[in-house]
DNA sequence: AAGGGACTCAACCGCCTGGCC
DNA sequence: AGGCCAGGCGGTTGAGTCCCT
């Protein structure tokens, strides 16, 4: 049956945009706002496809775009997010204010891929390029004493910290398949934390300057927050110094599966990492209690009932 | 100076998703 | 329930630029 074309291709310009076209597009969007891209070209007097207008606006003309080179902090954040989310460029872009998915995608393909390869890490899997699963298993068992630096901890329901070790670079989907050890065996704090044995210390030896750990915690409430500074079990004291060097202060809409979520638009990046009410938080409205604390929370924009790592499986 | 390979990044393409009717 | 549509996404392309020989 076929889909109707998004525009009349015979009468549209293609290729690089001219200054005049840019000006027309900017003027139109300033006057009428974004939206209805299909009809925008005609209304704005542009011989362009609506998609092309949208792309030009989003990737180049938008006034809030950050120009210039990526910082080292942005590099590392992209690497971390990519190892979590895979090629979900729009989700990654949602965490980098002023950067577009296209820009990040290009930057990944041209810079970061090479950077990771130079570090001996496969950019697709975030594993060492000469990764050998059997070696991992052996090493893991043999170096259990160092486990706290590398393992992953999960417990959404009890509001504790989730640590995903990117140095280990085991795909998240694999983590859930790992055997979860008995709470009591590994915790002195009442068995609130579960640990997954997933340690590959040799990676750190090879890249001693590389710390790819990202810790994620469920939303904290004020009370909890206040106690966090003295509690080593809380994620807040750990995560805040890590993210302070990146400017997350302006509110960034979270997106889910290609659509801006009406739920998520009220949540800033800090909240998406579970540290709402921290000084990083820029939310103007409070979190939906049901969504955030009762049935789960929007982890990095991936709204889940629980922290379902299977939904984060890489391509 | 010129040729050509490597690199960058804006733009395009096809497909997917969710809303609407 | 199913089809259509608009918006959005990730992959790919290709023109322009840079760099090396």
β-sheet strand percentage: 5-15%
Radius of gyration, in angstroms, nearest whole number: 22 Å
Q: Kindly state the percentage of residues in helix.
A: 25-40%
Measured distance between first and last alpha carbons: 30 Å
Counting DSSP H or I runs of 4 or more residues, the number of helices is 14
The secondary structure category is mainly alpha
Mean pLDDT: 56
Please tell me what the overall shape is. elongated
Oligomeric assembly:
single chain
What does this structure look like?
Mean pLDDT is about 55; it is low at about 130-315. This protein has a two-stranded antiparallel sheet with strand order 1-3. The protein is elongated, with a radius of gyration of 22 Å. A hairpin with a 2-residue loop joins strand 7 (about 300) and strand 8. With about 325 residues, it is mainly alpha-helical. The chain has helices spanning about 20-30, 40-45, 50-60, 70-85, 90-95, 100-120, 135-140, 170-175, 185, 200-205, 220-230, 235-245, 270, 290-295; strands at about 150-155, 160-165, 195, 215, 255, 260, 300, 300-305. The protein has 14 helices and 8 strands. The longest helix is centred in the middle third of the chain and has 18 residues, at about 100-120. The two termini are about 30 Å apart. The structure holds a DNA duplex (21 and 21 nucleotides).
């Amino acid at each position: 049956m076929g889909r109707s074309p998004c525009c009349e291709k015979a009468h549209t310009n293609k290729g690089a945009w001219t200054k005049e076209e840019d000006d027309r597009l900017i003027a139109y969007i300033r006057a009428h706002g974004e939206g209805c891209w299909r009809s925008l070209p005609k209304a704005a007097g542009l011989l362009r496809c609506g998609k092309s207008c949208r792309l030009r606006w989003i990737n180049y003309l938008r006034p809030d775009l950050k120009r210039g080179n990526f910082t080292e902090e942005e590099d590392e954040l992209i690497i971390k997010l990519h190892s979590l989310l895979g090629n979900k460029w729009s989700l990654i872009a949602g965490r980098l204010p002023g950067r577009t998915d296209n820009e990040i995608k290009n930057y990944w393909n041209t810079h970061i891929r090479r950077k990771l390869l130079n570090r001996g890490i496969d950019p697709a899997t975030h594993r060492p390029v000469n990764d050998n699963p059997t070696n991992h298993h052996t090493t893991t068992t043999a170096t259990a004493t160092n486990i706290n630096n590398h393992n992953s901890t999960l417990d959404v329901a009890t509001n504790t910290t989730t640590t995903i070790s990117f140095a280990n670079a085991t795909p998240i989907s694999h983590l859930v398949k790992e055997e979860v050890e008995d709470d009591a065996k590994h915790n002195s704090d009442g068995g609130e934390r579960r640990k997954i044995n997933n340690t590959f210390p040799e990676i750190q030896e090879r890249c001693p300057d590389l710390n790819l750990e990202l810790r994620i915690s469920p939303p904290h409430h004020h009370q909890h927050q206040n106690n966090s500074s003295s509690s080593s079990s809380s994620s807040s004291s750990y995560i805040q110094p890590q993210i302070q060097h990146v400017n997350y202060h302006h509110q960034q809409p979270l997106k889910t599966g290609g659509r801006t979520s009406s739920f998520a638009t009220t949540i800033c990046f800090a909240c998406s990492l579970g540290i709402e009410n921290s000084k990083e938080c820029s939310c103007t409205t409070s979190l939906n209690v049901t969504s955030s604390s009762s049935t789960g929370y929007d982890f990095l924009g991936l709204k889940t009932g629980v922290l379902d790592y299977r939904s984060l499986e890489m391509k």
